[in-house]
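[Discussion] Sanity-checking designs against the backbone

I'm trying to build intuition for which residues belong where. Below is a structure token string of 424 positions. I'd appreciate it if someone posts a full sequence so I can compare it with mine line by line.
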């Protein structure tokens, strides 16, 4: 289906029923799969195609992974139980104790904590870099044991737009892959593989599922990175004794990276999505293109309203012409960025809290990027575990309000903002 437009792929890719089969993707709600002979089952443990246990693979999950892979223009993909698991797997699949990676500093607070605390505990070090740094500064962050570079297309919640080509250029000069979390723009607005990224991750919990009903993640491989160009990735290029000496790059070619996630990480960590959740995710994906367009249109209108309001101290949205990332946004996301806006209310944290408490349509929730308008104060919630210095590195100021514009009528959203500001 490579020739279809992306809107068509949202509806049609991943599952094609045969004669007399269900038109809608079935939920294969089964832990296990029956075979007629022990020999047939044994072949699965030699990593031949098929299903043995849903912790490793499931037909519903695989169909949805195939759809997201098609939307991103990738070669192979796999679903995980959360976006956090997807980011962890994307890195731990090629890193081990004693290794190092480079990451943009302006990323989601939970991901920052994963990298800065949890992964350090298992012997994996990270250097955080300013995403706006020049190439000389980025190069200085690399070490002989650096194995990957990580960034977010649009940072959550600072809304920094990553210069993907710059980061890809630097990563490839050091013989390592660029991993991009593409959650906010989704492949509707940006396909990082087209700009040199090698691996893409998603929190499918957000726009992809779109209705705040399930959590999930995805890891998609472009199939373009040459894992055998150096000796940095022995987990992919040398025998895996836990699977009878399989060599992932040799035995699975371009599918080796994803096959290793399935064979090792899902097997051992067990971060597998429920088939029921994948079913809901697939329903969300069918309307993804429609919803993303509406989110962006509404957010642009709300950002323009806030920019003119004298009770607002600042507005950050890449769609605004005077935004520092407007040019990069036009380069990588000419059709729109996302539905999330960050801004400050005059009067600081106290005024921000009063504003948020006065909202009626927009809900205060620990979530972002679904059909409903919602709002959050990151410094006291999602980024609460970070120090003031770490908050600054992540681009989160104490007065920052993250406003996720939904798909309601934009006049109702603006009216809600207006009456809440009147209470400040």
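Best answer:
Here's mine. Compare freely.
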């Amino acid at each position: 289906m490579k020739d279809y437009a992306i809107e068509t792929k949202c509806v049609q890719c991943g599952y094609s029923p045969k004669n007399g089969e269900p038109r809608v993707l079935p939920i294969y709600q089964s832990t296990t799969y029956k075979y007629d002979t022990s020999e047939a089952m044994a072949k699965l443990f030699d990593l031949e195609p098929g299903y043995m246990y849903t912790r490793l693979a499931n037909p519903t999950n695989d169909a949805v992974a195939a759809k997201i892979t098609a939307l991103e223009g990738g070669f192979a993909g796999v679903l995980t139980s959360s976006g956090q698991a997807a980011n962890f797997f994307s890195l731990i699949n090629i890193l081990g104790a004693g290794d190092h990676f480079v990451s943009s500093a302006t990323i989601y607070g939970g991901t920052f904590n994963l990298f800065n605390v949890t992964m350090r505990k298992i012997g994996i070090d990270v250097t955080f870099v300013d995403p706006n740094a020049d190439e000389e500064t980025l190069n200085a962050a690399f070490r002989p044991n650096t194995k990957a570079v990580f960034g977010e297309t649009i940072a959550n919640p600072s809304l920094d737009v990553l210069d993907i080509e710059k980061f890809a250029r630097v990563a490839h000069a050091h013989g390592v892959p660029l991993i991009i979390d593409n959650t906010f723009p989704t492949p509707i607005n940006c396909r990082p593989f087209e700009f040199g990224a090698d691996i893409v991750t998603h929190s499918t919990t957000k726009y992809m599922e779109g209705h705040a009903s399930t959590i999930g993640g995805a890891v998609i491989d472009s199939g373009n990175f040459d894992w055998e160009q150096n000796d940095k990735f022995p987990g992919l290029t040398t025998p895996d004794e836990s699977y009878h000496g399989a060599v992932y790059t040799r035995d699975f070619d371009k599918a080796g990276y994803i096959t290793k996630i399935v064979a090792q990480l899902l097997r051992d960590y067990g971060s597998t999505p429920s088939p029921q959740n994948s079913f809901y995710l697939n329903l969300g994906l069918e309307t993804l293109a429609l919803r993303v367009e509406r989110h962006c249109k509404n957010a642009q209108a709300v950002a323009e309203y806030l920019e003119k309001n004298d009770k607002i101290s600042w507005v950050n949205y890449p769609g605004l012409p005077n935004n520092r990332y407007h040019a990069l946004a036009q380069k990588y996301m000419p059709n729109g960025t996302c539905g999330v806006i960050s801004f400050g209310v005059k009067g600081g944290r106290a005024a921000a809290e009063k504003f948020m408490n006065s909202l009626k349509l927009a809900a205060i929730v620990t979530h972002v990027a679904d059909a409903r308008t919602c709002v959050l104060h990151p410094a006291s919630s999602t980024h609460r575990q970070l120090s003031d210095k770490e908050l600054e590195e992540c681009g989160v100021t104490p007065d920052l309000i993250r406003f996720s514009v939904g798909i309601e009528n934009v006049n109702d959203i603006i009216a809600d903002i207006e009456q809440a500001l009147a209470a400040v």
